[in-house]
Structure formats: structure tokens, C-alpha cells
Here is the input.
Amino acid sequence: MLVALFGGKTIVTLMLHHSFDYELVIILLMVCSALLEVCIIPLETLLTVMGRLAVILRYRLGVIALYFVILAGLLRLCGVIGAALASVICSALIFGLCLAFAARWISPRAAARHTDL
Here is the structure.
């Protein structure tokens, strides 16, 4: 995040060979989206081990479909910044869903239902 904050503008300029006024905003939004995706990995792994792969895939497909709707709207309103913002919104949505499912299925009440006592 610090690299993006202090050197993000230079990185984008070197990659695109052109300078924009909103480079820093775009790179920070994309780093935020990437950080959320990194946080999702252990939650999805946990849910997969718990046998909830079908639920994860169903919700991920739903969020992907929603992403295109959000992307179309924000792209028209905000341009490239809207595209980066759509990525952050959908990453946060998937993170929130995975976190909620993990908390629900790890709860003592859920554990009591699945015990063999």
C-alpha cells in the first residue's frame, strides 16, 4: 500500500507511457481490491474444507454477474475510476459474504447441529 501511495503515480506512468491526473486514485483502488482478494483466499479455503464449495461458487457467480452491472453503471458515471471502484465493491462483497458464511458455520450453534453425540 505504501509503494502504491508513494510510487503508484510513477508506476502507472511507466506502464502506460502517459501521465493522468487520477493515476494515484486508480492505483490505490486497485491495490485495495487486491488486498481484499488476498483476504478472501483463506476464507474460501476454510469454506471449501467445510464442504461449502457449491455455496461459494454460487455466490461468486452471482457477484460476477453483479460486477458487470456495477461496472457498466460506474464506467458511464466515473470512467476508469468507476471501473476500479466496481472492482473494490465486488471484492468487498465477496469478502463480506465469505466472512459471514465462515462465522455462521463455525458458530457453536452450527457445531452443535453437526456433532455425533
Remarks:
- Residues 25-108 form one domain.
